[in-house]
Design brief:
Elements: H1 3-8, H2 16-40, E1 44-45, H3 47-50, E2 52-58, H4 64-72, E3 80-84, E4 88-93, H5 100-114, E5 122-126, H6 128-156, H7 159-183, E6 186-187, H8 189-217, H9 228-264, H10 268-301, H11 304-319, H12 324-328, H13 338-341
Parallel strand pairs: 1-6
Antiparallel strand pairs: 2-4, 2-5, 3-4
Helix pairs in contact: 2-7, 2-10, 4-5, 6-7, 6-8, 7-8, 7-10, 8-9, 8-10, 9-10
Length: 369
């Protein structure tokens, strides 16, 4: 049976702890690249955050260099120029709307370049104070989100799970913002909304893994026989198909929104929202499996009871002459039976059950006359 068939049947046996060492290095590299992009290139904040004036017009046969030359003639050579929605050009300059003469000069220059009238050039102006207010509100929204999520996960799970989940969310935001800085995608209010949305998706996957892991921690067949890391690995294999299905069914509509909304309809706002959502969905699925889970396992393995269990199981594995690799992954005298880890397996008394446990009688076969 191929790996794809096993995945579709939810019969995977992936060793996630072995992959964690590699994936954590990948995450560290991505974080370093993101931090470098933020320090070197910075974030391309939209007009809603920085303030200024934006002109938009259709310019099918005009290049960026042509626009730059036209703006240089009116003293705006440092203005940001961007093609959005096909042949629509966007120019952003740090001009206040009260400076009407400068606004008119830029509009006239763009009209002369594109062969249109000044009335055909649309512009929008936002004050710097209003942009600062929007930035403060976005930061406050993120802080409140982190606090509420930490309290909720602490009450429903425990504080170690809350820490691991928030580490994964911070990982997702850091990489997404780094990609925006690296490719100079514009950050708008729609992007901030997308950030909040992808954090919800990331937490959903993470909490599904944690909940399944907590269910396995209560299985009597695993108590004292498996380390926390091994039980977490079993939980990840159980929810892997669910995570894949959730990601695929979420990414497909976002891709259609990005392709149809941008290329066909020319809706720039849809593109700003869909790009952040697409990046966040992919990174969020990755982090729930390869960031939140190892972080939670690392924190739990530091608890005295879990550390003592691991030492006992590793010592037992060494006494059986196990290899160094088997000792490192040791978690039981023998692997837990598949029935102990399957939600669909029938309930039955294990062979080690105490005497007196009720066992349902076997049905008798009727004799044929």
């Amino acid at each position: 049976m191929s790996r794809l068939q096993r995945l579709l049947r939810n019969q995977t046996s992936v060793s996630f702890p072995k992959a964690w060492k590699t994936t954590l290095r990948v995450s560290a590299a991505l974080i370093l690249i993101s931090v470098g992009a933020l320090l070197v290139r910075g974030v391309n904040l939209g007009i809603e955050f920085e303030g200024g004036t934006v002109w938009e017009t259709s310019a099918p046969d005009v290049s960026t260099a042509d626009v730059r030359d036209a703006l240089r003639a009116v003293g705006q050579a440092d203005a940001k120029i961007q093609f959005v929605g096909g042949d629509v050009i966007r120019v952003r300059a740090e001009l206040d709307a009260t400076d009407e003469s400068s606004v008119v000069r830029v509009s006239s220059a763009l009209a002369a370049l594109t062969g249109q009238t000044v009335d055909d050039i649309s512009f929008n102006s936002i004050s710097a104070s209003w942009g600062s207010e929007i930035t403060d509100k976005a930061i406050r929204a993120l802080i409140v989100f982190f606090i509420v999520v930490a309290i909720y996960i602490t009450l429903t799970q425990e504080w170690r799970m809350a820490v691991a989940a928030l580490v994964a969310v911070a990982h997702d935001i850091g990489i997404t913002v780094g990609i925006y800085a690296l490719f100079q995608f514009e950050v708008t209010p729609a992007t901030v909304i997308a950030f909040l949305t992808i954090m919800g998706y990331s937490l959903y996957d993470t909490l599904v893994v944690f909940d399944k892991n907590r269910d396995y921690q209560r299985r009597s067949a695993l108590v004292g026989r498996a380390t926390y890391t091994r039980i977490m690995n079993s939980a990840l294999n159980t929810v892997l198909l669910r995570s894949v299905n959730t990601t695929v069914t979420s990414v497909l509509p976002v891709l259609s929104m990005l392709i149809v909304g941008t290329l066909v309809l020319g809706a720039v706002t849809l593109a700003e929202f869909a790009v952040a959502l697409l990046i966040g969905l992919l990174v969020g699925t990755y982090s729930s499996l390869f960031v939140a889970a190892p972080a939670a396992a690392w924190l739990k393995e530091r608890q005295p009871e879990h550390a003592e269990l691991r030492e006992r199981l590793e010592a037992r594995a060494r006494s059986r002459g196990a290899t160094a690799h088997e000792v490192e992954d040791a978690s039981a005298d023998e692997k837990p039976a598949p029935a102990a880890l399957s939600d669909a397996s029938p309930t039955r008394r294990p062979s080690s059950a105490p005497l007196g446990t009720a066992i349902p009688p076997r049905p008798r076969k009727r004799k044929r006359r």
